Amino acid sequence: MKAVITAAGKNHRHLPLQTITNAEGQPVSILRMQLLELKAAGIERVGIVVNPGDEALLRDAAGDLADFIDCLPQKGGQGYGHAIACARDFVGNETFLLSIADHLFVSDLPDRSCFQQVIESAGQMQASVSAVQPTRESQIHSFGVVAGDRVDGESGVLRVREVIEKPTPTLAEQKLIVSGLRAGQYLAFFGIHVLQPAIFGHLEQLLAAADKPARVNLTDAVNQLLNEEDYYAIEVAGRRFDLEAPFGLLHGQLALALKSPAREQIMADLLQLVAER
After folding, report:
1. 36 CB contacts (<8 Å, ≥6 apart)?
2. SS3 of residue 98 by DSSP
3. For residue 95, what are the CA distances in angstroms to 21, 63, 198, 214?
4. Cα(239)–Cα(255) distance, rounded to whole angstroms?
5. How many beta carbons lie within 10 A of that of residue 171, not counting itself?
6. 196: Cβ–Cβ under 8 A, 6 or more apart, which residues?
7. Which of 48, 62, 118, 126 has the fewest beta carbons under 10 Å from its own?
């Protein structure tokens, strides 16, 4: 299986280049951290959708994994749906994993990354799968949010009926309530998907029909795809951190630090810092 990472957005194209300290206490770029986890999950090769001219920066951030990636230029800045469509020739007619470069993914499981969890679920379901996370209604304006029915015998798995991009709380209350969640929470996209190649046909159809400059969301194509075949969502054991959000990088760094062998010392330092303020 190949993977695609979108990293061409003008507001977040430099975020994966930032250095963070991993759970082993080693400095690493956020991009390289994703690449290491993808390789460990069995991904054969990664295509990174980039703004033309950024190729050298991303290869430098990949470090010794530069030969593991292909840079796929997105010309024109036509949005997320177009960025994914730029990977069609790279992916070919195969199932692929899709991720975004401006998020940090931290698994709650010691032996399986968030990527591995989604890949395993897609293999079990033999269908497209999107990772989701319970999200407070005050935050759903930033994500695609799913409605679906829980699958008997499959913990944390839903058969998706509909996805709405950045819904209002009122719309979410009317159409997106999922059983088993706390009041005021909804299942929002996590940032990792395993998709069937048919998604490219839907994206290209939507792009052709859209007003110019064409801007199409992944959710538009997903809603078409799930009308043709089974589509699932899995609640991942982990957390996503939006690096573009205020203090998103800080929150992600703290999550990694609290997974490290130095956890107790870090907690003591944080408590001391709070007490001194």
Report:
1. 28, 65
2. strand
3. 32, 27, 9, 25
4. 9
5. 13
6. 95, 127, 128, 225, 229
7. 126
**Is the distance from CB of 95 to CB of 22 less than 8 angstroms?**
no
Range in 148-152, 154-158, 213-217 with the lowest mean pLDDT: 213-217
CB 160 within 8 A of CB 231: yes
Q: Which fold has domain 2-133+190-276?
A: Spore Coat Polysaccharide Biosynthesis Protein SpsA; Chain A (3.90.550)
CB atoms under 10 Å from CB of 88, counted, come to: 18
Quick check: helix, strand or coil at residue 100? strand
Residue type at 45 in one-letter notation = R
Instruction: Determine the pLDDT at residue 220.
Output: 92
Output DSSP code: residue 167. Answer: -
DSSP code of residue 267: H
Contact 2, 97 (CB under 8 A): yes
* pLDDT cut 70: percent of the chain above it: 97
Whether residue 169 is predicted with pLDDT greater than 70 in this model: the reply is yes
Q: So where are the chain's domains? A: 2-133+190-276
Task: Determine which of 42-46, 136-140, 198-202, 244-248 has the lowest per-residue pLDDT on average.
Answer: 244-248
Does the pTM surpass 0.70? The reply is yes
Residue written as token pair 């593991």: 68
- For residue 143, what are the CA distances in angstroms to 188, 227, 262? 6, 21, 33
CB atoms within 10 A of CB 28: 16
Two tokens at 136?
């407070």
